[in-house]
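Q: What does the assembly look like in three dimensions?
Context provided by user:
Components: two
Sequences:
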Amino acid sequence: MTDAALTAPKKHAANPRYGSMSRDRTWALRWSYFFLILFAIFFLLPPIYMLITSLKTSAEISAARNPWWVFNPTLENYRELLTSPQYLGYFRNSAIVSVVVVVITMLISVPAAFALSRMKFWGSSTLATGVFLTYLIPETLLFLPLFKMFALFNEWTGIQLINRWWVLLILYPTLTVPFCTWIMIGYFASIPKELDEAALIDGAGWMQTLTKIFIPVALPGLIAATIFAFTVSWAQFLYPLAFTTSTEQLVLPVGIITSLIKGDVFNWGQIMTGALLGAAPPLIIYAFLMDYYISGLTAGATKG
Amino acid sequence: MAEVKLRKIIKRYDEVEAVRGIDLDIADHEFVVLVGPSGCGKSTTLRMIAGLEDISGGEILIGGDVVNDVPPKDRDIAMVFQNYALYPHMTVFQNMSFGLRLKRYPKAEIKKRVDEAARILDIKELLDRKPKALSGGQRQRVAMGRAIVRNPKVFLFDEPLSNLDAKLRVQMRTEIKKVHQQVRTTTVYVTHDQVEAMTLADRVVVMNNGIIEQVGTPQELYHSPKTRFVAGFIGSPAMNFIPCRMEANGDSLSVRLNDGLVFPVPAERVARYRGHTQNGKLLLGLRPEHITEAHAHLAPGEIPFEARLEVTEPMGMETLVYFPLNGTQVCGRVNPNAGARDGAPLRLAADLNNMHLIDEASGRVI
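A: Here is the predicted structure of the complete assembly.
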């Protein structure tokens, strides 16, 4: 009896009813790894498939052999695209449009965010919400009225806006400015108000406070907004498809589809190569600025 | 450098009046501390002087000029914030010289001023560091340095020591006093800490509920408070307020606390209190240091009484004793060797030479 009473607690201690913190953590980690690997496979398979296909000849692609293996690797697709003036033209159009859109977006959204978050004026908070609401309207709803507006503009002024690559410089900011402004409002809001008050007392005007204090301090947020604007501009498909038609006016995403799909003939090797090369610039930018991007997004998300 | 004058200053936030028409004259070179509990309007007043808050009514004059509509940068003031507000992407040198660079001072002049301020504050070796590499105390010094280099008319401090630990706060308090002795710039300093106010100020402004309760030197406020609020706010532990009645016995007066405890009022105070024998709402105000252990030989005005101590707090150089009296808890300060023990009786003496009599209805000290 006495022995049993003495040994019982020991047994309990050896096999605790509830899991310890480290056991819980181990299982949480296992599940995390399981799902992370699952998602990584799911999301990496398409680009890997694109890479494999881009290294194949058309004959090998159409042959019913293992699609996940390259039997006769070739860089022919790359050589053809990179020497094609048409493809390089799309690339150039995309690059110009994206860079200029980023510049326009930053020039509008940074001062707008600063004004909305710091220069308290009548209706500023309503305006801030309004800016974000415009982002919630899908582009699929917008492109028809925009098309109509451009037609009217043409009627009134005689200036043709349809089928001009530079019209995308007006269209893309309708997508990028609201979101970038929202990110920057969140980021600027996380900067203590004493900082701009100190700058005001030190003798800075609003513009100097923005350029000398806010922009350097909010650099991670600024980079996050820049990456977002660039990615949206680079990958935008619907607007260029609707508003540009001539080959020399096309940007990369639409150019690949329209020039490499002829009727019902899909030039898969070159489509995959073109898409892969097209994905490279955002990928390179992400790789270099990933840390800034993450800190920028989280700051905006938690403190906005 | 300049004097600062507030004329009937009002600040309204929608329906709420945060500052309710205050008047204050701050002399050139003076160190004035605005002190009061949270929400009393002291920081709002400072921010109105700085130009960071609009003024709803009244006038603010700096150096004789009305500055109501003058932006902060043109008021020639410098401000030190509670959270330092250092520019995180700039070095200490750049932080301190920011204002001068904006005003396009010559580089040599900027360097001279920053070096001089760094010497005064003993931060010369920190000039190339960024704020994140500094401790709290060092950051506060840099914030002060940023104010000093500007050589402004007025320094404004908004609770600058609140973010520091207790030890550093005491050290920085001395530093601020030393800096003021050297630069002699007119200073307005806001704090909720009455010890900070008492130790730093030439004059203390006690604020409550958007109005000024009393303005005076630390000694004046401590020894001659005009209201119950000031009497209770200044001094730590706070003054005891014991309900009492004033009784006339021929030419003399006595304070009756309860049936068994009657203290004769010192003769020099009789005239002042004589008109209040009919007032049933009186409070006897006695600071803890005026309730001590009863010595064998009591001075005139020191009245002995017995108390059963509830709690004792040994502080080293003194012991704080707490006991109930007339429905309130009263605090006294006794010698550590007086034999004060929790739950034990002790013979104490109240020094009525330092008593205050307060009209409970108006809150005024009689």
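Follow-up: The interface with chain B takes residues 192, 194-195, 197-205, 208, 212-213, 216-217, 219 of chain A (CB under 8 Å).
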